[in-house]
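re: ur question from earlier - yeah i can do the single chain one, its not a big deal. heres the input i used so u can compare w yours
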Amino acid sequence: MTITQAPAADRAAGRPRRAGLGRQLVGGFFLVTGGVHLGLVAADPQVYEHFADHGLLAIVRSGWHDIFMATPSFYGLLLVAGEITAGTLLLIGGRAARIGWVAVIAFHVLLLLFGWWTWAWCLPALALLGWLARSDLRSSRRRS
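and the output i got, formated as tokens:
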């Protein structure tokens, strides 16, 4: 089957034309946010200093200050590596995407610890990510 025949074959089989579109968008989004964090680390890693000030647990606030902010360039680059890895896994698809979905969902669950203000982003994002992951994993099982 040629590339031009694939969408027609997908439609004939009852599959959406772009079953992996959500996965590709989330993967691309994480690559972009990894680039944003790379820019922040390169420009001024101290920009992260107050991120955990409203953490829900004392261990989050003190851990951020004592560990992350002790070497913010290093930990900022680890954040970049994690985001780029998760995005890349989603873009690869297949079995790698399963790990990518777990990573992006875990990332957002952990963000909830940084204060009530993060919930405004994370709760809708988790609902969307859960729906997209479920849809993507179901469609990949049907193709297998």
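The two ends are 16 Å apart (CA to CA). not sure if urs matches, ping me
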